[in-house]
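Let us practice reading a record.
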Amino acid sequence: MTELAAVKAALKTQAVETPSWAYGNSGTRFKVFAQPGVPRTAREKLDDAAKVHEFTGVAPTVALHIPWDRVDDYAALATYAQERGLKLGTINSNTFQDDDYRLGSICHPDARVRRKALDHLFECVDIMAATGSRDLKLWFADGTNYPGQDDIRERQDRLAEGLAQVYERLGDRQRMLLEYKFFEPAFYTTDVPDWGTAYAHCLELGEKAQVVVDTGHHAPGTNIEFIVATLLRKDKLGGFDFNSRFYADDDLMVGAADPFQLFRIMYEVIRGGGLTDDVAFMLDQCHNIEAKIPAIIRSVMNVQEATAKALLVDRDALNAAQRSGDVLGANAVLMDAYNTDVRPLLAELREELGLDRDPMAAYHRSGWAKKITEERVGGQQAGWGA
């Protein structure tokens, strides 16, 4: 097999999961911006997701967020997805949009609130069983704003106890992905602030507990690829939430702020054997001012481009330069791959898969945007809290 054929073969195995909430309205702390044609129901979100998969060929699963995507019959929703060439993917819990969670959820000092949060997480596990989903993604807004507000160690004990109860509820083919975020909305202490804390809890829980890396959840200058390499080395990288940040957790399109960082991350994924189904490649973005579906298509393409460039790294040349101490030579190997224009390669790949060479142009020609703008009139548009 030639080098380019091997690259194409590897790219054909990659799948990018799109998030249901990215198809709905979102905004800033100050305003949620509505757009025409935005889905009103979970099924309409799946209709839009099907278009992303239709034109990219690599977005076959859709993540749900509960209660934003709550329906009466999840098995029927899974069937609806299947009829559109999709599967329901990661189930995302929500323990941050209720007045009871002002001081935390499973880390809350009040046992009643902790019980309420756990019941919601158990509900999410039940939804996983109904939809056939493998992964439960947990992100907690828990933390404190002021010194002395609560006991830091006790909060970690509560967290460990709650996670253990959810872990025991998982089926044999299910797993939990624990996300971390170094600040916001808690500003003094955050209960899961970094990959080390997430890793420590997952290590204690067992093999069905994995860490998820949100690329926007790090302080400026953090070497995310080092985190990725370390977690892969310990078999504890469960997946990514891909997005971009300039300052904090901006939830911008992946690859928009620092495409070189995305390339470096993808190189470590490939180097560590992470280009498999065991590592979930998920988008977690909020498209506030740009059109939803084109932004998601572009994001999927950005992940593909970074992956293709990472696959082109001459591993033998890089290894030789590293072992001989050739600093500039080793760096040049990486830069040569990064500076390669892989768009023609990806266009050929799509053609081989029976797709349009240009997914974005194909979407615009499809007339889908005009169709949903005309048809989705009335009702309550989906968005934060809906």
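A brief commentary: Residues 314 and 347 are 22 Å apart (CA to CA).
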